[in-house]
Amino acid sequence: xxxxxxWFFSGVTVLTVLAMALLLLMQSLPVWQHEGFSFxxxxxxxxxxxxxxxxxxxxxxxxxxIGALVLATPVGIGAAIFTAEFLPARFRLMVKLTIExxxxxxxxxxxxxxxxxxRNWIYELLAPFDPLSGDTLFTAAVxxxxxxxxxxxxxxxxxxxxxxxxxxxxxxxxxxxxxxVVLHVSLPQASxxxxxxxxxxxxxxMGETIAVFLVIGRQxxxxxxxxxxxxxxxxxxxxxxxxxxxxxxxIAYGNPLHWGAMVGLGxxxxxxxxxxxxxxxxxxxxxHAS
Amino acid sequence: MHRKLIHHGFRFFTGLCALACCxxxxxxxxxxxxxxxxxxxxxxxTEQILLVGADGGIFYNILGTLILLATTVxxxxxxxxxxxxxxxxxxxxxxxxxxxxxxxxVLNGVPSILFGIMGFIVFVHYLDWGKSxxxxxxxxxxxxxxxxxxxxxxxxxxxxxxxxxxxxGLGLRQSQIIRFVILPQSINGxxxxxxxxxxxxAGETAPIMFTATIFxxxxxxxxxxxxxxxxxxxxxxxxxxxxxDPSVSAKIWGTALSLLGIVFLLSLxxxxxxxxxxxxxxxx
Lengths: 290, 284
Prior knowledge:
The structure holds 2 protein chains of 2 kinds.
Chain A: H1 2-35, H2 38-41, H3 55-86, H4 89-103, H5 107-125, H6 137-161, H7 165-173, H8 178-207, H9 210-215, H10 240-244, H11 248-252, H12 256-289
Helix pairs in contact in A: 1-12, 3-6, 3-8, 4-6, 5-6, 6-8, 7-8, 8-12
Chain B: H1 2-36, H2 42-46, E1 49-50, E2 55-56, H3 59-90, H4 96-109, H5 112-126, H6 133-157, H7 161-169, H8 174-203, H9 206-209, H10 232-241, H11 246-283
Antiparallel strand pairs in B: 1-2
Helix pairs in contact in B: 1-11, 3-6, 3-8, 4-6, 5-6, 6-8, 7-8, 8-11, 10-11
């Protein structure tokens, strides 16, 4: 009885997950048939003309989440080094629990702070560059950086703490001071775990919908003139998630091609995020094993 | 001398990072409390929305969120128990175990908007439920399954093996060991995990916006089909998009503060149990 129940509920969960991936794939088929691979590489999205290209949204997702990572990683890892290596254990637990509590602030609350406060600050900050509004990719990146900061910090702290204390004692015994122990022992040994922390933060940033939706401006077809130009940062844009969260999802259902294109965006997002999380989890686990 | 200088500089710099982390996040909380507090009153919690959010309170939004959370627990508990026991008991020493772990991690990373899209296809259209509290609860339940499972798995893994050996020595069958030893001993892992999961589910907007919740005009659902609920996160989400009226603005911050209150309350109840696990991890 117990055995049957356990296998049954596990089966339900695993099958639901697999069925979900399959369902998204099937529903997106029309757009792959219509556009071929250029669905992922085309930058133009005009649904009335039946033209669907996801590239400008993929670009938006990458710029926003990598921007967030660039802002959050140094501070997050720096803070983790302090709590894991320099702070007495009592305080460490306190700081860590506070940070984890803050990691639970709902994304719609971050979105609210973004739309009512951050947007105006960014607009004033960027005034010399003459942006059209405060709804920019940069605003979204800053907001996401705040959101993933606790994730990166607390996972980095775990990674650093998993380096055995004997290694540190041995290094101290050889005459290294605290900083040298961190730079030559803890950081190299925890490097996989730290990389995993960053990857998991990236995965979270890419999948975030509501906060990004509220501050990004949701402007379609924003394809940069040069991939290395910084100009798009101060313009509005669209990410995969902000598109999926928009009312176009309601409109699209019923037209198989348009719906296929919307779900196709979801499939692209799922593939990218799954690869990142999978790699992050893999690194994290092999780190603990050693 | 040179080395010492670098050491102090480095420690100061990392300390600054930690301070920046804590203070930025504290400032966020302070900003919400400061703006939201004036809106909080007894009326705010007991009345329904009036004048498109400019007046009245959020009674049905809180109720809707609680209905969604209750459904979430009912859905996530059996699924997470099944997965955790499969992982901890039946797959012990099996190579499928690490695949299952990986699946749980990947599921945890799936963006919540994709659950919303899936729910939109399956519940709203295939099953023709329209917007329904039940689809919202099922989706949120699936979303928190990894959180609950991981907490349970950690708890089960930390059980002293002598308990299980003693039970086996008394001649208990595996299913009896699960029911009378493993489950009672790991129940606080289930509670902690569920509380943390609920703290996450309470604030999720993306999975329920197309499937379960509307802005105004719903009270207590009395069926499954076409029975949406109001909810706190969706209320904030909609009002945030046209928040130029100052009286609306006060209500949004009040709603945000209430949501934050629920989320923090759920995580704080889970805190003592988590502290205990931390301690055991350090001394055990």
